[in-house]
Design brief:
Blueprint (H helix, E strand, L loop, with lengths): L5 H10 L3 E4 L6 E2 L2 E2 L6 H9 L2 E5 L7 H11 L8 E3 L1 H15 L4 E6 L2 H8 L7 E4 L12 E6 L7 H11 L4 E4 L18 H8 L8 E2 L6 H14 L8 E5 L2 H11 L2 E5 L6 H4 L10 E3 L2 H8 L3
Parallel strand pairs: 1-4, 1-11, 4-5, 6-7, 6-8, 8-9, 9-10, 11-12, 12-13
Antiparallel strand pairs: 2-3
Helix pairs in contact: 2-11, 4-5
Length: 301
């Protein structure tokens, strides 16, 4: 069932949109399962309407290279220049700017998986940056800038929580890769540890106020516009961008606050009954069941 009329969506793509930003989980895939219609939507947009695509995800556990291979392996056909921007990239971009602006030593400790580890460790190319492993000796120089980065983990352990408590004694600036409360593949069963889960488990032992650099952080807008400019060699205005996501409080809020067009799909975190609540402040411009609806609209142009 299509919740928006065919002509409304078709006119949007034909007359206004030059770049589509896709959320990944809940829009293109759920876990390792492709969502119906996601296989050819990116090349179809390029072929039929000359619309370029970017993937923006709050996933931080995996490297960009791994995610690209995973999407291709499950059947998502990507254009060669379709870039993936992850929550780990957002953290790295933010810290890179901080490191370059200061003459002080910057010390980092992180909780996370391979994707976050890869992005954080790249920062050691700067002479004033030191990266500690979470279980290394708990020491920080007195006058250094100290950041604790908390990402999503596959498993939460007591040792991990104890190490965070020990590092927190040095009064770190806490960065979170995202503020998501659930993942479409986890079905709210805590099968993975999101940053908010870790903070919740720690709240009786230590108070950590984290700053999330994932969607809907407004700093991402400039990063995305720069990525579009560098990748497609053109300047795109905000009203020429469409963000397609499955979550109101991250995806759609980011689109609304960035002044992009917003399209909510009901294939992930948000269900129709939640969307129909009258007290929602953040609402999408358009609603479809899934990306399959978009494919059906534009494939016969």
């Amino acid at each position: 069932m299509i919740l928006e009329t065919k002509n409304v969506i078709l006119n949007l793509f034909k007359e206004k949109i030059k770049v589509v930003i896709f959320d990944m989980d809940g829009v293109l895939r759920i876990g390792n399962d492709i969502i119906d219609g996601a296989n050819n939507i990116i090349p179809l947009l390029k072929e039929k309407l000359n619309i370029n695509s970017i993937i923006l995800t709050n996933e931080c556990r995996y490297t960009n290279q791994y995610l690209r291979r995973n999407l291709i392996n499950i059947g998502v056909n990507l254009e060669e220049n379709t870039k993936i921007q992850t929550a780990s990239n957002n953290i790295s971009d933010f810290l890179k700017k901080k490191i370059k602006k200061t003459n002080k030593k910057v010390e980092l400790v992180y909780v996370g998986e391979e994707g976050l580890e890869y992005s954080i460790n790249k920062l050691t190319k700067y002479d004033n940056c030191v990266v500690h492993k979470i279980n290394s000796k708990h020491e920080v120089e007195k006058d250094s800038l100290f950041y604790l980065v908390i990402g999503t983990v596959n498993n939460i352990t007591i040792e991990m929580l104890e190490n965070i408590i020990k590092w927190s004694k040095f009064n770190p600036k806490v960065l979170l890769t995202c503020e998501d409360k659930t993942d479409p593949a986890s079905k709210c069963d805590f099968s993975l540890g999101l940053p908010c889960h870790l903070l919740h488990l720690l709240e009786h032992n230590v108070k950590l106020d984290g700053y999330s650099l994932g969607k809907p952080n407004p700093l991402l807008k400039s990063n995305i516009l720069k990525l579009i400019r560098n990748n497609f060699n053109k300047k795109i205005n905000e009203d020429e961008i469409l963000f397609i996501g499955d979550t109101l409080y991250t995806d759609i809020r980011f689109a609304v606050e960035s002044e992009f067009h917003s399209l909510l799909v009901l294939s992930g975190n948000t269900k129709k009954e939640i969307l129909n609540k009258n007290n929602n402040i953040i609402t999408p411009d358009y609603v479809l069941n899934s990306v399959k609806d978009i494919v059906e609209i534009i494939e016969n142009i």
